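Notes from hallway chat w/ T.B., transcribed later so I don't forget. T.B. wanted the structure written out for a chain they're using in a teaching module, and asked if we could keep both sequence and structure tokens in one place. Agreed to drop them here.
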Amino acid sequence: MADFIAIDTNIWHFAFIKPREREFQGIHEKAKEFILNKLRDTRIRIAMSSYQLAEVLEVLRKSGVPCNVLLKLLEDFMSAKFYVIELTKQHVSKAMELSCSSNIHIYDYLVAIPLEAIVSEIFSADDHFQHKHFTRIAKVTNPLEPWVIREGRRPEQFSK
């Protein structure tokens, strides 16, 4: 039986995009290696909400990934390796409620909430995912450590 995991959009982004600045080459390499390892692991299935599926494609499109590559990725997302959960009105309602209480944007919740009771682990470099709302859904691991990413900011390195 496969183990279900979630991989946040930021990791997909860094895996597919070439670094524009030399100082960020390591984060791109780590993300690419991480994604490839998870794709090759036959014991793992990758779960994502239908919202996140569209988000990954749009983030990559905005970053200059050609349409033929995006269409192939979409085809891959429809394969048995992936488990896509449709977004419901209840998911959006809960996401809005939690977003209002935490001040974390609704989009992170639309990635995670539909995966509740499905995934055993969420992989994200976004420090928002360390919030209790997300760690209650599943274990949250940053596979890009020591890098931390938050939308709209430059990646930062933190030492433990």
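Follow-up for T.B.: The first helix runs from residue 9 to 16. Might be a good example for the class.
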